[in-house]
Design brief:
heterodimer, A: Alpha-Beta Plaits, 2 domains, four-stranded antiparallel β-sheet, B: alpha/beta, Rossmann fold, six-stranded parallel β-sheet
Chain lengths: 182, 565
Amino acid sequence: MEKNQYTIVVFTENKIGLLNHVTIVFTRRKINIESLTVSESEIKGIHSFTIVINSTKEAVEKVVGQLERLVEVMKAFYYENDELISQEIALYKIPFSAIENGVEMGRFLRNNDARILEIQKEYIVIEKTGLYKETQDLLEKLRPFGLLEFVRSGTIVITKPMKSLETYIKELDDKHDSMPQI
Amino acid sequence: MSENNRIAGGEAVLRCLLEEGVDIMFGYPGGQIMPFYDNLFHYTNRINHILTRHEQGAIHMAQGYARVTNKVGVCVVTSGPGATNIVTGLADAMMDSTPIVAITGQVPSTLLGTDAFQETDIIGITMPITKWNYQITSADEIPAAMAKAFYIARTGRPGPVLIDITKDAQIAFMDYSYKKCEHVRSYFPYPKIDPTIISEAAKLINEAKKPLILAGHGIALSNANSELKELAHKADIPVATTLLGMHDIDSDDPHYVGMLGMHGNYGPNIKTNEADVIIAIGLRFDDRVTGNKATYAKQAKIIHIEIDKSEIGKITTPAIGINADAKVALRALLKEVKINTHKEWLAEFDKTHGIETEKIINRDCYPTEGMIKMGEVVKLISNKTKGEAIVCTDVGQQQMASARYYDFKDGSEFVTSGGLGTMGFGLPSAIGAKVGRPEKQVVVFIGDGGFQMTIQELGTIRQSKIPVKIVILNNHFLGMVRQWQERFFDERYSFVDIPSPHFTKIAEGYDIKALYVDKREDLENAIDQMLASKDCFLLDIRVEKKENILPMIEPGAGVSDIKLE
């Protein structure tokens, strides 16, 4: 079956070991995690995992089901790329000599929508946010200057659907009982 | 015993157990759980602790206990090897949805992560095989964590919960107060039913010409046996059960048509691929039930009632998924399902049953020559216990023979390791079942292979005087593996030959009455003696060496390709 890029967003309690719990679900199905970001959501105490994988739709649906089955997971969603606004941040460390050698760094950075974070005697640190392809392009452009270090964050996403997390959680409460109603 | 509320963590654990109605637990002491055991010393008039001979025995006993009482089974073990020894039982309970609270000792919190003596990361190890787990490092956390553990273990789709308690948390004093857990923010155990889906499902059932109910473990777990029966009778629908659903419906019920799956009955398997509507209740379409899923029930509209949402659509593509407790869903359905008759359809099952009886059942249960057969023993015991016993099994050929030939009547229970297929489950699960339901006759069928995996629990039987009836169906072979080697590996019998010891002599060492039977004419008398005994009794029955369990859906084959020979 055809594999596509999917982004899974998981809302959870903030509990020790939960990352392990979440990743085990992927490990069991032998799905590699391309990127992973965890942060607190707009609701205090509820954390969100943003996980990017390449997989089939069928596998993604089942993974989401298995994630929601975890006691401390509130809700999990999966999205295709066109349902998301996503960004990554990349940091590049290059030798200071890159400037000394007469590169017009100011224009170069403006053209690439990047900025300088830090200048030291030996190196400068450049920051760029964007899609994977954009940060990757800049990486290729900076390689000739003698790239010292490079790091890219996981993808973070904002979803296009208008329903808020709070609404989802309220719906979950409305649709469930804590005890069997017999 | 102090009833004041400034108490040690270990005592707090005990008070929590009492709050949750626990009066029996199974365990084995060791270094890091010793403070708890010291507190337990003063609570033995309120909690019966069964000392096992191995931690695996303790958890299987808790499982057997939980399965027949519908209560949470509790076991207590120490850290490190004690904790890792219950891993198999946790995995088993996870697969078979058994409510368990397992308490493990842990090294003092100051030593966590230092490879201290008998330290193991049991939280990490058991994450994929527990419904929930939690490490308590401070005595103050005990009541809330214990309350949550019991709530999670028994609600929704039940499962095992592990609570790991550091030694210092057991020793430290805390101010005890207990509040039962009734809600966990991120946990949704009981989905409310959507009435429109119930109406759609009822419509499908009302219009069906060849409806078939598949009943699973969820029926027993939600105590929905009477609702199942009512649906079957009202709409005149045949009921087939999974291995764990054997006791869902009285085997005498005219709507009961047999067991599903690899070694299930002929009719329900082939008719699965003829039914127009399948109502699957409280089951997960295990591959041992579906065979090759590419050819499984493609013609049928499936209504899947299941409390675990992630099971709906996991294996099959149901026309209607009802994410609900089985009892709640059935009650709602019953209001809209109409009285109906499917006489001809039901008669077809009589026909298939006739074929199976002639080709297999008579041969298995009523042989007149050759060595004793497994089915024959099970059928005799079924008749003599009127189908009302609690039947436990180990895993393998005797398990299938027990499921096929014990006639489960109302009040019977079937305790077997379904999903995980754990050899060694039989004996300890029977001990747990007997402790939980002392008024019932508890019979366990075990092969000579599985018996030797947890044979040390004969010591538990001896010490705690637990009158279970042990039936070893002894063929000196790992029979099921041998059967596969015969059929699929050109009879290359690779490491399945186990010259077993004299089990009656072993029993004698444990002061357990035992008989060895190898002749058909001695069998009935031996069974009578065993069943009449007020004490534990062991029968070592020498059965046919190379018996095959049939019918069989061979690996890769579909349900309608089930083979009768």
